Amino acid sequence: MKTIFLVDDSATILLSISNILAKAGYAVEKAGNAEEGMKKFQAGVKVDLLITDLNMPGMNGIQFIREVRKLPNYKFMPILFLTTESQQEKRAEAKAAGASGWIVKPATADQLLNTIKLVLR
Amino acid sequence: MDELTTVFVTESREQLAAMEEALLQLEANPEDSDLINAVFRPAHTIKGGAGVIECNFIVAFTHVAENALDKLRNGDIKVSSDLVAVLLGCCDHIGNLLSVLEAGAAEPDEDLRAEGDSLLSRLQRDWLDAKEEAPAASVQPNRPPVEKVDDVQASGGGLVETDFWHISLRFGAGVLRNGMDPISFLRYLSTLGQIVHIETIPDAMPSAEEMDPEACYLGFEIKFKSDADKAAIEAVFDFVRDECTLHILPPNSKLADYIALLQALPENTMRLGEILVKIGALTQAELDDGLKQQHAVPPEEGGEEASPPPPLGEILIEQKVVQPELVEAAVIKQKQVSEKKAAEARLIRIQADKLDRLIDLVGELVIAGASTNLLASRAGLSDLNEATSLLNRLVEQIRDSALQLRMVQIGETFNRFQRVVRDVSKELGKDIELTIAGGETELDKSVVEKIGDPLMHLVRNAMDHGIESAEVRQAKGKSPRGRLSLNAYHDSGSIVIDVADDGGGLNRDKILKKAVEKGLVQAGVHLSDQEIANLIFEPGFSTVDKVSNLSGRGVGMDVVKRNIQGLRGRVEVHSEEGHGTRFSIRLPLTLAIIDGFLVGADRASYVIPLDMVVECLELQAHATSSGERNYLNLRGEVLPFIRLRDLFEIPGEPPKRENVVVVKAAGQKAGIVVDTLLGEFQTVIKPLGQLFRHLRGIGGSTILGSGDVALILDVQALAQIAIGREERSLAAPSSVNTPRISQV
């Protein structure tokens, strides 16, 4: 079973996405902010994909992606970030930081799962 | 209903009317591709709108109808009167579905659903399945229909082998480092279709020493078979779009579809690139790239910086993102669009009740203005008088402009009858041609809305009873094809709508016999032609022995009369036995404010609609014959007149000098004798209450500047009374010169 790591400061989004993922047969790891996420990565959590929000208090999503990519174990792990239609420049910035792709909010469950299918090995 | 739904319903109804009109024209010109598009477009728009408001039952129904229209457009099926009939049925059904939506129901009821299913199964059986095995899967609006690709039969009949998308892909070096695996894109691509052939291009691979194991050097040339559109295919590579080189060329068969789509595009001004994106031949990303390149053209080697940037079309072709044929077709479309746009009138859509409110206010303004005017003239200050008269002139202009806003052309209402005549004549087995004239005549919106039903009765009656069967017509030496005409025109302050047929005319003896049978008149009583014609408007009167589906139930003509009277109008019938009947509906121009002529009798004031006033003169005692006879000599013409004092039984002696207002109604002149002439007056019509509906000679009331109420005279009725009295006093029992007109 593939494990997906979800990092977002909104409890609602964490819950709604993890519900969709769990229903689709994925195992889900969750973190409420980037610092908490970093701690899990440093502890060597075994995940196949990271999905992170960009706007978070404390360390923002882009810094977070950059930090994760520096860790040798996660150099080639797919990373998706959550974005909106209007955040076009943020998208390029996140890509440059090492993200693989993005999910545009609001997304239907199908869109979400299709994107995940695309990037998961 | 929320706003979005309301807008959808209104728009869709307009689309349906347009579709119906186009269908009827299409039947006559089956080869006209503009008309086919004009039929397709409304269906397409309605389906799209229904999708947005998530009204699934409309989407589902419209979808199949749209498929059929699509085949029609592609020339796969031909226009036939059967097909037009079914499609007209579809129009009606969509109209019903819209009503269901309007009523707020979640689903249409059983009957309606069954009706829809039977229409769809006819379409499916006779037109869709005949050419295609599988029913069409969900077609993306605005995209090439998928069936076309699935059809491995080319137009020539042979199997088409080369009909694949061609995708040329070179990955950027950083793909792996961003956590992406090239194989995932290929795998994901295969969820959209089938990768028929793939060639791996390792040319970018450097020698082993220089090679970075974390970089990606791969490229692919892919033959891809898919129903997906270009944007969907491109979306697969969204995440690597920036760093890879990607060209997607559509299969050849798509070209024709794209060009067909181009021609069917709605008429908005668009730029070349936008047009191509709209039909799906180009994706937004490709367009953006092309534009970037257009504006960043490096200066020529010789340093000729002044050379203009190359056209976008050339860049796109060079970049291998579109085929040259498409660019050419799009350029043509672009020209058409800009030409058409210039001709289009600009319209604003507003809610009718806002307009009504404006008219009400203007009415109050007119009354208030009259009152100011009165006070000013009493005050006798010339400056004030001048100012108020200017104000008055402006108010008059505002009044006219405001009323003009409510005026709509009768043409749209008339055009509906093309369909009615077509359907009914088929049903009756008669060949009837409808001619329409005066469609541009304008009428108050509320009148236009309410005139439809009475017109419908008259038209159906004319077809059913008026026009004879082809055999009878031929026997009479007439053309076998019956003629029915609708005509609207202005006539002395009213609008007249004529419904005329060239049928048998009213049968005098038959009407009389029936009337006696029904006890409407007593046997042996002599009736004038006019009185006999009048009988057909009596409740429960019908001369047809067999009750047909259409009319002949004997309800109808009396309802017609009542409806038209409700609009302050009249209906007249002119008939010539053997040559046809003409019903003339005479309607007031507007229902709200008129120019009036104010007259006085005793202490009360009355308003005569100014359009009907011909002249005013003093009543000279010697011009009238002795008190008994009410007519005078108007320059050698006999003018019957009526005294308001007599008519309304106003007590007291008339003044020494009386005046006659000569009025003309429906072509007949009559005089109205009043005490005083008070001049022109803008009259805001206030209806009389139910209690006074039966009063003859009074059409409404208005409020004067002084606050007094004045009654508006119903001139036509007064003229009738005057003429009628004269006739009766002349009354030899034979009605020699009775006009062949009856007023109802």
TrEMBL record, chain A:
The modification 4-aspartylphosphate is found at D53. Residues 3-120 form the Response regulatory domain. Keywords: DNA-binding, Phosphoprotein. The keyword Phosphoprotein applies. GO terms for molecular function: DNA binding. It comes from the Bacteria. This is Response regulator with CheY-like receiver domain and winged-helix DNA-binding domain. The lineage of its organism: Bacteria, Pseudomonadati, Pseudomonadota, Betaproteobacteria, Rhodocyclales. One of its GO terms (biological process) is phosphorelay signal transduction system. It holds the Pfam family Response_reg. InterPro entries: Bact_response_regulator, CheY-like_superfamily, Sig_transdc_resp-reg_receiver. Gene3D superfamilies: 3.40.50.2300.
From TrEMBL, chain B:
Residues 391-591 form the Histidine kinase domain. Residues 1-101 form the HPt domain. It comes from the Bacteria. Involved in the transmission of sensory signals from the chemoreceptors to the flagellar motors. CheA is autophosphorylated; it can transfer its phosphate group to either CheB or CheY. The modification Phosphohistidine is found at H44. Its EC number is 2.7.13.3. The keyword Transferase applies. It catalyses: ATP + protein L-histidine = ADP + protein N-phospho-L-histidine. InterPro entries: Bact_Chemotaxis_CheA, CheA-like_dim, CheA-like_homodim_sf, CheW-like_dom_sf, CheW-lke_dom, HATPase_C_sf, HATPase_dom, His_kinase_dom. This is Chemotaxis protein CheA. It comes from Azospira oryzae. GO terms for molecular function: kinase activity. PANTHER family: CHEMOTAXIS PROTEIN CHEA (PTHR43395:SF10), SENSOR HISTIDINE KINASE CHEA (PTHR43395). PROSITE patterns: CHEW, HIS_KIN, HPT.
